[in-house]
Structure formats: C-alpha cells, structure tokens
Specification:
The protein is built from three helices and no strands. By secondary structure, the chain is mainly alpha-helical. The relative contact order is 0.13.
C-alpha cells in the first residue's frame, strides 16, 4: 500500500494555479461538494465490504451477524448522504445567502 502511494505521488504531474483567475465561492462549494460525495461514497463502500465480509464469516454467531447488520446499515446511511450531499449543500448555501 505504501509503495502504491509513493508511486502515485512520484508519478503525479504538478498542479499549477490558473494564471490570474481566482476561484469563485460557488466554484469552491461545487468542488468541496464533489470531494464530500467522493469521500462519503468511499467510506460507505468500505463499510459495505466490511459488513459483507462479517456476514459471510459470521458462521451463525449472533454477535457477528449483528455487527455485520450494523455495518451494512452504516453503509446505507453513507450512500444516502453521498446522494443527498449536493442537495444539502445547496439548501445550506441558500440559507446563508450564498446561492
């Protein structure tokens, strides 16, 4: 994992700021929303994987099955938040006068 991260950093091209252009607040909020959606979807996928593996390896143990169900419910909440994140951000932006 560390080798893959080192390769990613080493092979990445440098990021340059746009010449003379400044980012607007709405552009920043849009980029932030995209990042939030990506992170939420990634974490939800992790919980879905953990829940599925726990369920498969539970072997009938009620405690492990309950932990698996909790992880699967958390994944569902994470996916729901990822889907609703743009709507939540737009509602918050309208409440504070940003959109």
């Amino acid at each position: 994992m560390a080798i893959a991260a080192a390769l990613l950093v080493g092979l990445a091209s440098p990021a340059y700021a746009a010449s003379g252009a400044t980012q607007t607040l709405s552009g920043l909020i849009s980029n932030l929303t995209s990042w939030i959606v990506g992170i939420l979807a990634g974490v939800a996928t992790l919980f879905l994987t953990i829940g599925g593996l726990r369920y498969l390896t539970a072997g009938g143990d009620p405690g492990q099955v309950e932990k698996a169900k909790t992880a699967l419910k958390s994944a569902a909440v994470g996916y729901a938040l990822a889907i609703l994140a743009p709507l939540i951000v737009s509602i918050l932006a309208s409440l504070v006068g940003g959109g």
